[in-house]
Design goal:
5 helices, 157 residues, alpha+beta, globular, five-stranded mixed β-sheet, 35% helix
């Protein structure tokens, strides 16, 4: 397995879109996942959105790892302007296929996003971990990301 991370290019759009679909399917059944899919997840189809992001300097699309030449992960971050004039990198997507986990693919992509965010002048990185998803929470904490707010929800339907 090749463990690396690189900016996505036009030839990677279909793979990133397919991985985004897979990530959404995997996360939706988890606690908080259905509301996440409705509110925070990017609606499909993903190909046109991913293709547009490649030309947007305020967004960064990363591909990661390869098993037999196939990309096994992706990450997407964007610059968010804050009220005080500073910016933060919003890491909306970071996903690795189950067969590619535990070997450093996510770490390589996280480092690539962190370097991009620093070069963009961001003061930090924000992301979301669903409640009870200890693996994601622990991964983010290993990079210094810690909870700064808890969003709560009650379904009334």
């Amino acid at each position: 397995m090749e463990v690396d991370a690189a900016p996505a290019g036009p030839d990677d759009v279909a793979v990133v879109a397919a991985l985004a679909d897979t990530a959404t399917e995997e996360l939706t059944p988890h606690r908080g996942g259905e509301m996440w899919r409705r509110r925070e997840a990017r609606p499909g189809p993903h190909e046109s959105a991913v293709a547009a992001m490649l030309d947007d300097p305020a967004r960064h699309v990363v591909i990661g790892g390869r098993i037999d030449g196939a990309i096994v992960g992706y990450a997407i971050a964007s610059v968010e302007h804050l009220h005080d004039g500073t910016t933060v990198a919003d890491l909306t997507d970071l996903y690795v296929l189950p067969d590619g986990r535990g070997v450093g693919v996510g770490e390589a992509m996280m480092l690539a996003v962190t370097e991009w965010a620093a070069a963009a002048g961001c003061i930090g990185i924000d992301s979301i971990a669903l409640p009870g998803d200890r693996e994601t929470k622990n991964f983010f904490e290993s990079f210094g990301l810690v909870a700064r707010a808890l969003r709560v929800h009650r379904s009334i339907s």
